[in-house]
# Entry
Amino acid sequence: MSDDPKPKGRWMPILLAVSLALNLLVVGVALGTAFRVKGGHHGKAPPGFGSALYRALPKEDRVALRQELSERHVKGSKHRSQDFDALGTALRSDPFEPEAVQVLLQQQAQSMADLQVALQEEWLARITEMSDEERQVYADRLKDVVRRGPHRRNRKN
# Structure
């Protein structure tokens, strides 16, 4: 018989700690998912203002606005290409001139603002052309869009 007792395995407490950590992780993910799906903070966020106005429009108006945006995008592509070339030149300049980059950034911001104004004007023109009844239906659809929350990007319309 041996006087040395059998050495205790140190792996058992480590295995229990890892198991507890994994169980807590699973419970945390499940509770977080349930909270979000059941209308937690993320579920209550309204959609963006412009996207809600767009999504509530009738399909033919959405298609027309998308076409307008596409045409403007194509028209502006030459300017954007030139602006990217100018930005590349400005970033490589030695000495670096942040003022030149700032001018390009301001031009891009103004271009985006002009696009937004044009789309808002087109949206308002379409709303103005609607009859009272059509605007009431639109207002109801808008309320539904806001109630549903942010749009998942799995559909085009």
Residues 49-148 form one domain. Helices lie at 11-37, 49-55, 59-92, 98-129, 132-148.
